[in-house]
Amino acid sequence: MAKQNLQPLLVLVGPTGVGKTAMSFSLANHFSAEIISMDSMQVYKHMDIGTAKATKAERALVPHHLIDFIEPTAEYNTNLFVQDCTRVAADIIKRGKLPMLVGGTGLYLQALLFGLIKIPPVPADIRQQIQHRIAEEGNQKLHEELGQFDPETARRVHTNDTQRLIRGLEIYKATGKTWSFFLKKQKDRNPHGEMRKYRPILIGLRRERKGLYERIERRVDEMLEEGLVGEVESLLESGVGVELCSMQSIGYKHMARYCLGDWSYTEAVRLMKRDTRRYAKRQFTWFRDKGITWFHPDAAAEVVLFVEKELFTGEIV
Question: pTM of whole model > 0.90?
Fold first, then answer.
Protein backbone atom coordinates (compact mmCIF):
# COMPACT_ATOMS: atom_id res chain seq x y z
CA MET A 1 0.00 0.00 0.00
CA ALA A 2 1.39 3.43 -0.94
CA LYS A 3 2.50 5.62 1.91
CA GLN A 4 0.03 8.35 0.94
CA ASN A 5 -2.90 5.92 1.29
CA LEU A 6 -2.05 4.84 4.84
CA GLN A 7 -3.87 6.33 7.80
CA PRO A 8 -1.56 8.78 9.64
CA LEU A 9 -0.82 8.09 13.28
CA LEU A 10 0.95 10.77 15.29
CA VAL A 11 3.43 9.51 17.90
CA LEU A 12 5.01 11.85 20.47
CA VAL A 13 7.74 10.39 22.69
CA GLY A 14 10.45 11.60 25.03
CA PRO A 15 11.90 11.02 28.48
CA THR A 16 10.00 11.68 31.66
CA GLY A 17 9.76 15.36 32.55
CA VAL A 18 10.80 16.67 29.14
CA GLY A 19 7.53 18.48 28.37
CA LYS A 20 5.41 16.02 26.38
CA THR A 21 2.13 17.10 28.00
CA ALA A 22 2.31 20.73 26.86
CA MET A 23 3.33 19.73 23.33
CA SER A 24 0.60 17.09 23.12
CA PHE A 25 -2.11 19.65 23.95
CA SER A 26 -0.73 22.06 21.38
CA LEU A 27 -0.75 19.39 18.68
CA ALA A 28 -4.14 17.96 19.70
CA ASN A 29 -5.79 21.37 19.45
CA HIS A 30 -4.13 22.22 16.14
CA PHE A 31 -4.83 18.92 14.39
CA SER A 32 -8.07 17.84 16.08
CA ALA A 33 -6.38 14.83 17.65
CA GLU A 34 -7.24 12.58 20.57
CA ILE A 35 -4.51 11.33 22.87
CA ILE A 36 -3.73 7.67 23.48
CA SER A 37 -1.48 7.29 26.51
CA MET A 38 1.63 5.21 25.84
CA ASP A 39 2.56 5.04 29.52
CA SER A 40 2.69 1.75 31.40
CA MET A 41 1.75 3.37 34.73
CA GLN A 42 -1.04 5.74 33.75
CA VAL A 43 -3.29 2.77 33.08
CA TYR A 44 -3.81 2.33 36.85
CA LYS A 45 -6.62 3.90 38.82
CA HIS A 46 -5.88 5.80 42.05
CA MET A 47 -2.30 6.48 40.94
CA ASP A 48 -2.51 10.03 39.68
CA ILE A 49 0.16 12.22 41.24
CA GLY A 50 3.15 9.91 40.81
CA THR A 51 2.25 9.11 37.20
CA ALA A 52 1.71 12.77 36.25
CA LYS A 53 -1.65 12.06 34.61
CA ALA A 54 -3.52 14.80 32.86
CA THR A 55 -6.11 16.28 35.21
CA LYS A 56 -9.82 15.76 34.71
CA ALA A 57 -10.10 19.36 33.55
CA GLU A 58 -7.38 18.78 30.96
CA ARG A 59 -9.05 15.58 29.81
CA ALA A 60 -12.27 17.52 29.32
CA LEU A 61 -10.45 19.75 26.83
CA VAL A 62 -8.73 16.93 24.92
CA PRO A 63 -10.01 13.33 25.04
CA HIS A 64 -7.51 10.88 26.57
CA HIS A 65 -7.52 7.10 26.23
CA LEU A 66 -5.85 4.19 28.03
CA ILE A 67 -5.50 5.96 31.35
CA ASP A 68 -7.28 5.27 34.64
CA PHE A 69 -8.99 2.04 33.60
CA ILE A 70 -7.55 -0.87 35.61
CA GLU A 71 -7.00 -1.46 39.33
CA PRO A 72 -3.45 -1.31 40.77
CA THR A 73 -3.79 -4.96 41.78
CA ALA A 74 -4.24 -6.05 38.15
CA GLU A 75 -1.44 -6.84 35.73
CA TYR A 76 -1.04 -5.03 32.44
CA ASN A 77 1.45 -5.94 29.74
CA THR A 78 2.65 -5.07 26.26
CA ASN A 79 0.32 -7.53 24.54
CA LEU A 80 -2.72 -5.95 26.20
CA PHE A 81 -1.49 -2.48 25.32
CA VAL A 82 -1.10 -3.33 21.63
CA GLN A 83 -4.62 -4.79 21.55
CA ASP A 84 -6.12 -1.81 23.36
CA CYS A 85 -4.17 0.75 21.35
CA THR A 86 -5.17 -0.82 18.03
CA ARG A 87 -8.83 -0.83 19.05
CA VAL A 88 -8.84 2.75 20.34
CA ALA A 89 -6.95 4.14 17.34
CA ALA A 90 -9.48 2.57 14.97
CA ASP A 91 -12.35 4.10 16.94
CA ILE A 92 -10.77 7.56 16.90
CA ILE A 93 -10.34 7.36 13.13
CA LYS A 94 -13.99 6.33 12.68
CA ARG A 95 -14.98 9.54 14.43
CA GLY A 96 -12.90 11.59 12.02
CA LYS A 97 -10.15 12.47 14.50
CA LEU A 98 -6.39 11.96 14.41
CA PRO A 99 -5.02 9.39 16.88
CA MET A 100 -1.93 10.61 18.73
CA LEU A 101 0.14 8.33 20.96
CA VAL A 102 1.92 10.17 23.77
CA GLY A 103 4.29 8.64 26.29
CA GLY A 104 7.67 7.34 27.25
CA THR A 105 7.25 3.57 27.52
CA GLY A 106 9.73 2.42 24.91
CA LEU A 107 8.71 -1.24 25.03
CA TYR A 108 5.21 -0.27 23.92
CA LEU A 109 6.62 1.70 21.00
CA GLN A 110 8.89 -1.21 20.10
CA ALA A 111 5.90 -3.56 19.95
CA LEU A 112 3.85 -1.18 17.82
CA LEU A 113 6.65 -0.53 15.36
CA PHE A 114 7.95 -4.07 15.00
CA GLY A 115 5.13 -6.32 16.19
CA LEU A 116 4.77 -8.36 19.33
CA ILE A 117 7.87 -10.22 20.35
CA LYS A 118 7.66 -13.99 19.96
CA ILE A 119 9.45 -15.72 22.82
CA PRO A 120 8.97 -19.36 23.88
CA PRO A 121 6.84 -19.78 27.03
CA VAL A 122 8.73 -19.57 30.31
CA PRO A 123 8.11 -22.45 32.76
CA ALA A 124 6.33 -21.30 35.90
CA ASP A 125 9.01 -22.71 38.19
CA ILE A 126 11.71 -20.50 36.59
CA ARG A 127 9.62 -17.37 37.08
CA GLN A 128 8.86 -18.34 40.68
CA GLN A 129 12.55 -18.93 41.42
CA ILE A 130 13.47 -15.48 40.10
CA GLN A 131 10.63 -13.82 42.02
CA HIS A 132 11.83 -15.53 45.19
CA ARG A 133 15.42 -14.41 44.57
CA ILE A 134 14.34 -10.80 44.05
CA ALA A 135 12.43 -10.88 47.33
CA GLU A 136 15.42 -12.38 49.14
CA GLU A 137 18.39 -10.71 47.42
CA GLY A 138 16.93 -7.46 46.10
CA ASN A 139 16.67 -5.82 42.70
CA GLN A 140 20.18 -4.43 42.62
CA LYS A 141 21.93 -7.79 42.80
CA LEU A 142 19.77 -9.37 40.11
CA HIS A 143 20.10 -6.29 37.90
CA GLU A 144 23.88 -6.70 38.09
CA GLU A 145 23.46 -10.36 37.15
CA LEU A 146 21.32 -9.40 34.15
CA GLY A 147 24.06 -7.02 33.06
CA GLN A 148 26.58 -9.85 32.93
CA PHE A 149 24.80 -11.79 30.18
CA ASP A 150 22.54 -9.14 28.64
CA PRO A 151 24.13 -5.70 29.10
CA GLU A 152 21.88 -4.13 26.45
CA THR A 153 18.73 -5.03 28.37
CA ALA A 154 20.34 -4.02 31.66
CA ARG A 155 20.98 -0.54 30.22
CA ARG A 156 17.39 -0.32 29.05
CA VAL A 157 15.63 -1.69 32.17
CA HIS A 158 15.74 0.32 35.37
CA THR A 159 16.87 -1.46 38.54
CA ASN A 160 13.49 -0.76 40.16
CA ASP A 161 11.49 -2.01 37.18
CA THR A 162 10.84 -5.39 38.78
CA GLN A 163 8.47 -6.65 36.11
CA ARG A 164 10.93 -6.17 33.23
CA LEU A 165 13.90 -7.20 35.33
CA ILE A 166 12.19 -10.54 35.96
CA ARG A 167 11.34 -10.77 32.27
CA GLY A 168 14.94 -10.28 31.18
CA LEU A 169 16.20 -12.90 33.62
CA GLU A 170 13.53 -15.51 32.93
CA ILE A 171 13.94 -15.30 29.15
CA TYR A 172 17.62 -16.08 29.44
CA LYS A 173 17.13 -18.82 32.03
CA ALA A 174 14.41 -20.48 29.95
CA THR A 175 15.85 -20.13 26.44
CA GLY A 176 19.59 -19.54 26.79
CA LYS A 177 19.15 -16.42 24.64
CA THR A 178 18.83 -12.83 25.74
CA TRP A 179 15.84 -10.53 25.52
CA SER A 180 17.98 -8.28 23.30
CA PHE A 181 18.43 -11.20 20.89
CA PHE A 182 14.68 -11.64 20.51
CA LEU A 183 14.09 -7.91 20.10
CA LYS A 184 16.62 -7.73 17.27
CA LYS A 185 15.12 -10.82 15.65
CA GLN A 186 11.69 -9.26 15.95
CA LYS A 187 12.86 -6.02 14.33
CA ASP A 188 14.63 -7.81 11.45
CA ARG A 189 11.65 -9.99 10.57
CA ASN A 190 8.74 -7.64 11.14
CA PRO A 191 9.62 -4.07 10.15
CA HIS A 192 6.05 -2.77 10.32
CA GLY A 193 4.41 -4.52 13.26
CA GLU A 194 1.00 -3.36 14.37
CA MET A 195 1.45 -0.09 12.50
CA ARG A 196 1.33 -1.73 9.09
CA LYS A 197 -2.10 -0.14 8.50
CA TYR A 198 -0.82 3.26 9.55
CA ARG A 199 1.72 5.86 8.52
CA PRO A 200 3.39 6.73 11.82
CA ILE A 201 4.70 10.26 12.22
CA LEU A 202 7.33 9.87 14.92
CA ILE A 203 8.23 12.96 16.94
CA GLY A 204 10.59 13.06 19.91
CA LEU A 205 11.29 15.78 22.47
CA ARG A 206 14.66 16.22 24.14
CA ARG A 207 16.52 18.79 26.19
CA GLU A 208 20.14 19.14 27.14
CA ARG A 209 20.88 16.91 30.12
CA LYS A 210 21.37 19.60 32.77
CA GLY A 211 18.06 21.27 31.96
CA LEU A 212 16.20 17.94 31.87
CA TYR A 213 17.60 16.86 35.23
CA GLU A 214 16.64 20.19 36.79
CA ARG A 215 13.07 19.76 35.52
CA ILE A 216 12.97 16.21 36.88
CA GLU A 217 14.02 17.38 40.34
CA ARG A 218 11.42 20.16 40.34
CA ARG A 219 8.80 17.70 39.18
CA VAL A 220 9.55 15.35 42.07
CA ASP A 221 9.25 18.27 44.51
CA GLU A 222 5.91 19.24 42.95
CA MET A 223 4.58 15.68 43.24
CA LEU A 224 5.47 15.65 46.93
CA GLU A 225 3.79 19.03 47.45
CA GLU A 226 0.68 17.74 45.69
CA GLY A 227 0.43 14.81 48.11
CA LEU A 228 2.33 11.83 46.69
CA VAL A 229 2.99 10.44 50.17
CA GLY A 230 -0.71 10.51 50.98
CA GLU A 231 -1.54 8.83 47.69
CA VAL A 232 0.89 6.00 48.47
CA GLU A 233 -0.44 5.67 52.02
CA SER A 234 -3.97 5.28 50.66
CA LEU A 235 -2.85 2.60 48.23
CA LEU A 236 -1.10 0.64 50.99
CA GLU A 237 -4.10 0.97 53.30
CA SER A 238 -6.42 -0.31 50.56
CA GLY A 239 -4.38 -3.51 50.24
CA VAL A 240 -2.17 -2.68 47.27
CA GLY A 241 1.01 -4.59 48.18
CA VAL A 242 4.51 -3.30 47.59
CA GLU A 243 5.32 -6.47 45.64
CA LEU A 244 2.84 -5.64 42.87
CA CYS A 245 4.10 -4.29 39.55
CA SER A 246 2.12 -1.09 39.99
CA MET A 247 3.96 -0.34 43.24
CA GLN A 248 7.39 -1.11 41.83
CA SER A 249 7.42 2.02 39.70
CA ILE A 250 9.53 5.07 40.44
CA GLY A 251 7.99 7.25 43.11
CA TYR A 252 5.55 4.70 44.47
CA LYS A 253 8.26 2.26 45.47
CA HIS A 254 10.30 5.02 47.07
CA MET A 255 7.47 6.54 49.07
CA ALA A 256 6.22 3.09 50.08
CA ARG A 257 9.64 2.36 51.58
CA TYR A 258 9.34 5.63 53.51
CA CYS A 259 5.78 4.90 54.65
CA LEU A 260 6.80 1.43 55.84
CA GLY A 261 9.73 2.84 57.79
CA ASP A 262 12.50 1.34 55.65
CA TRP A 263 13.91 4.71 54.54
CA SER A 264 13.92 8.21 55.94
CA TYR A 265 11.95 10.83 54.03
CA THR A 266 15.17 12.55 52.94
CA GLU A 267 16.64 9.29 51.64
CA ALA A 268 13.43 8.34 49.82
CA VAL A 269 13.31 11.70 48.04
CA ARG A 270 17.01 11.57 47.14
CA LEU A 271 16.70 8.09 45.64
CA MET A 272 13.48 8.98 43.82
CA LYS A 273 15.21 11.90 42.10
CA ARG A 274 18.29 9.82 41.30
CA ASP A 275 16.27 6.92 39.88
CA THR A 276 14.07 9.23 37.83
CA ARG A 277 17.18 10.76 36.23
CA ARG A 278 18.52 7.30 35.48
CA TYR A 279 15.19 6.22 34.03
CA ALA A 280 15.14 9.23 31.69
CA LYS A 281 18.58 8.24 30.43
CA ARG A 282 17.41 4.68 29.78
CA GLN A 283 14.37 5.87 27.87
CA PHE A 284 16.62 7.26 25.14
CA THR A 285 18.01 3.75 24.66
CA TRP A 286 14.52 2.49 23.80
CA PHE A 287 13.96 5.34 21.33
CA ARG A 288 17.20 4.78 19.46
CA ASP A 289 16.97 3.66 15.80
CA LYS A 290 13.21 4.14 15.58
CA GLY A 291 13.19 6.81 12.84
CA ILE A 292 12.16 9.55 15.27
CA THR A 293 12.58 13.22 14.33
CA TRP A 294 13.72 15.15 17.40
CA PHE A 295 12.75 18.66 18.51
CA HIS A 296 13.24 20.90 21.51
CA PRO A 297 10.05 21.10 23.62
CA ASP A 298 9.88 24.88 23.06
CA ALA A 299 9.83 24.46 19.27
CA ALA A 300 6.06 23.98 18.96
CA ALA A 301 5.84 25.96 15.72
CA GLU A 302 8.52 23.79 14.11
CA VAL A 303 6.74 20.63 15.20
CA VAL A 304 3.44 21.85 13.75
CA LEU A 305 5.08 22.60 10.41
CA PHE A 306 6.73 19.19 10.37
CA VAL A 307 3.44 17.41 11.11
CA GLU A 308 1.57 19.46 8.52
CA LYS A 309 4.04 18.48 5.83
CA GLU A 310 3.85 14.82 6.85
CA LEU A 311 0.06 14.82 7.01
CA PHE A 312 -0.67 16.63 3.80
CA THR A 313 2.16 15.58 1.52
CA GLY A 314 3.39 12.30 2.97
CA GLU A 315 6.94 13.45 2.31
CA ILE A 316 9.84 12.60 4.55
CA VAL A 317 11.57 15.76 5.76
Answer: no
